[in-house]
Amino acid sequence: MRIGLDVGGTKTDAVAVDAAGDVIARVRRSTGWGADAVVQTVVDAVDAVRGEAGIAQEDVASVGIGIPGQVDATGRVVHAVNLGVDEVDLAAAVTPLLGVPVRVENDVKAAALGAYALHAAATGSMAYLNLGTGIAAGIVVAGAVWRGDRGTAGEIGHLGVDPAGPLCRCGQHGCIEAFAGGGAVAQRWGRPGLHPVADVYDAADIGDPLAMELRAGVAHGVAAAVRVLVLTADVDRVVLGGGLTNLGDRLTGDVAAELAASAEASAFMRSLRLDERVQLLPAGSPAAAVGAALVGVARDPQEVLARG
């Protein structure tokens, strides 16, 4: 039995996966703030999903953890700012408490593995484009995460697509994230609300000029990311995930229109059939936690196969 955890800024999603790759139990717990609280969250979530599945500790073969921030091959996490973590050797801290092998992976890369295994395994290659507070992608080729020479493959959020575009938090102008990142959109919107990006779309629906501009920018940024992923890695499928996908058809419709406009202007772009290569991650999919479970069982965390 394998356990996978997707540790998010507010919630931790945990699944138990059997030998056939089926999810037999799933629980969600609030995520604590700070390194010690994150360690305790992991332990509590593992205990909770074991209880839900009715499995003993000795029946757990491995635990995999997907978490924001930079993650090295040993399981050390750095700059997980949404969790209040500057640095923690998560694998070393959790392993003796759980008594099973533990491996840690960046959350977007883990989600890419899970999305491939659950929703795109029939394809040769896939990019998982995470649309959340920030923008990043994980690329899976022939069932394995493609990291590049220095582990930065897919870090496309700070790729500039418009030098005259909005200022990004990285200091550049016109980054994909400056257009389509939820944090950047909320900052430019500048109005209070629990769900500022949804508020922007609602206001755009009734003709608010700033909201319409921001909404168009989201479509521009996401479409640019799709083009970059296809033109650089030639992935067969781009799966959209993350919090912004809760916008559903309003998001995907705008992105499809943006891709169609570029296709209309270029025979080459038409030949790529980009609109047919974009897929929305199904609502409620446990892809990130399932991907973490795959990370946990892998012999080499740097070469994880989504086929198990």
UniProtKB/TrEMBL annotation:
Belongs to the ROK (NagC/XylR) family. SUPFAM superfamilies: Actin-like ATPase domain. It comes from Microbacterium awajiense. This is ROK family protein. Gene3D superfamilies: 3.30.420.40. It comes from the Bacteria. Pfam families: ROK.
